[in-house]
Structures are given as C-alpha cells and as structure tokens.
Amino acid sequence: MIISFEGIDGSGKSTQIELLKDYFKLKSIDAIFLREPGGTELSEQIRTILLDNKNVINPISEILLFEAARADLTEKVIIPEHNLGKIVVLDRFYDSTTAYQGFGRGLDLQIVDSMNKFATNNTIPDLSFYLYISYNVSLDRNINKNYDRMESSGEEFFKNIITGFDQIAINNPKRFHKIDGKLHSTEIHQKIVEIIETKLSVNKNINNLSEKKNG
Ligand SMILES: Nc1ncnc2c1ncn2[C@@H]1O[C@H](COP(=O)(O)OP(=O)(O)OP(=O)(O)O)[C@@H](O)[C@H]1O
Ligand SMILES: [Mg+2]
Description:
By secondary structure, the chain is an alpha/beta fold. The chain has eight helices and five strands. A five-stranded parallel beta sheet has the order 2-3-1-4-5, with helices on both faces. The two termini are about 25 Å apart.
C-alpha cells in the first residue's frame, strides 16, 4: 500500500507522519517513510538544488528537476518496497507537482499530468491525505522559519496551490482525503488511522477472495 501526505507548508504533514510511524510500530506493521524530493542519494542532491534560495530556476526546469528526483525515488525505492508488501508512506508525491507547478506556477495541467505519470511509471497512491489549512494559518505556523526557495514564492502562489489541492480532491474523491488541518493533531491522526484500517481490511478481503479462487 502506498500512502501520500499532501498540503501546503505547515499543514502538519510531518507531524502526522511521525504519529503514523508510532502507530505502525505499535501494530508491528512493516512501513517505510520517504520524503519528496529526496529518499535516494540523487534525489537528495536534486532537493538541495531545488530548495536553494540562490538558484533562479524557471518553472520548466523546476518541474523537470522535481520529476527527475521522483523518477529516481519511484524506480529505486517506492516500487521495490511496495512489491515486497511494505506500506510506503510519502511526505508529498506527484499531487504536489500538480498543485505547485501546475496550479502554482501555471504550467499546462495536461502536460504536468503526463509528466507525473511518466516519472512514476503510472504509480498511484492507494490513499492520499490532504491536510487543509489556509494561507494565513500556514504563515502563523511558520512564523520563525527560514524560508526555502519554494516557500518564499508569495501569497498568490500559495493561494493558487490551495485551489489546486482542492481541485485534486474533487477529481479523486476515493483516493484523496481532505482533512481539516486545524483540528487537534491527535484528532487528525485518528481520522487517518480509521481510513487506513478500512483500506487495509478491504485489501485483506480482496486477497482472501483471490486466494480462495486460485487455490
Ligand atoms: N493539528 C495541528 N494543530 C496545530 N499546530 C500544528 C498541527 N499540526 C502541526 N502543527 C504545528 O505546525 C507546524 C508545522 O507542522 P509540520 O512541520 O508537521 O508541517 P508540514 O506540513 O510538515 O510542513 P512543511 O511542508 O514545511 O514540511 C509545527 O510547528 C507543528 O507543531
Ligand atoms: Mg514537513
């Protein structure tokens, strides 16, 4: 199972991923946790380039760098770990590119979609959790933060990204779960666990059925 976390900066992705880590440990469920861009040596190097405030990167170069990092991570880690039966938890995945480079930077959404599919070999998360907060809440939460290159892109950029994530939620109602990021983190965690447990039990039933069929 592949699970991704999405949402603007400060929406609580890392907080929820840490809570999920503890939960899987408690349940002895084998899971691997990755961040995007990153997770391989090459992808981490690309991450450094992308987040460096000194770099002037045009939107096309930017998306190509993100997709290059993603292709490396998908091929070297996500697909092999998934094939081993592990749960792969991603701190951002291609929906972030749709929101940031598509809606945020204004690149053609169909091209962005094709690039996402190309980079991931059509890998689609089983579940995505979108933690929704407003731009102002994001600012309040990040008040003491040193902004990286992506984060220092301004208000309109971030409002367009929020519109983008909202649109992705509308387009993918079964996969993309929009959760109010202003709720208490334990309440968000409970909602997430509930959705994951439902999905795991559905998958288990499907596996049992196909085992019966084949054997
Ligand atoms: N549900 C919540 N309610 C209030 N504050 C929260 C909540 N979840 C996280 N925070 C706080 O908001 C800040 C940002 O949270 P976090 O680092 O988890 O967000 P993030 O989505 O991972 O951000 P980034 O995209 O910058 O990595 C932290 O100070 C965290 O403690
Ligand atoms: Mg984070």
